[in-house]
Q: What sequence folds into this?
């Protein structure tokens, strides 16, 4: 009998983060519109997952990390981990709800969002907001620095 050695959660989180970064520019929202659980179950053959060979064990771990990364992306993009029925239709979206990438207009303008990467859009918005926040912080810090000089407080 052999014992499975634990792996540091930090190393797993680093692998998950690097996989997220790897998939980020490659897939749009449409690329995550599938049942990852079914794909994962079909791929992981029992003989393969039970193997004690180092390469097989590493491959199983990498497949599991990929599955977790896809599930995280599905939660971010669709608010849930998608599941399908036997015909391949998504069964766990709210009634009368479609994913954002199927939207055909924004306001009164026609805009086909079929190839949107909503996470890239949100990242751009976040970076703009963050840069504005950083500018405000610099102005506030500069103001404090000037006020301290006027009061006679020594600054670096």
A:
């Amino acid at each position: 009998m052999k014992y499975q050695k634990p792996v540091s959660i930090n190393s797993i989180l680093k692998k998950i983060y690097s996989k997220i970064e790897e998939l980020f520019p490659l897939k749009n929202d449409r690329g995550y519109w599938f049942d990852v659980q079914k794909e994962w179950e079909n791929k992981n053959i029992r003989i393969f997952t039970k193997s004690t060979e180092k390469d097989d064990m590493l491959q199983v771990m990498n497949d599991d990390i990929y599955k977790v990364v896809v599930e995280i992306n599905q939660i971010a993009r669709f608010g849930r981990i998608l599941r399908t029925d036997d015909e391949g239709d998504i069964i766990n979206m709210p009634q009368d709800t479609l994913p954002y990438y199927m939207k055909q207009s924004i306001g009164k303008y026609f805009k086909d969002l079929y190839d949107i990467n909503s996470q890239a859009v949100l990242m751009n918005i976040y970076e703009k907001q963050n840069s504005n926040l950083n500018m405000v912080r610099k102005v506030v810090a500069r103001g404090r620095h000037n006020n301290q000089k006027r009061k006679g407080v020594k600054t670096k």
Notes: The beta strands are 105-106, 109-110. Residues 118-151 form the longest helix (34 residues). The chain has two domains: 9-110, 117-156.
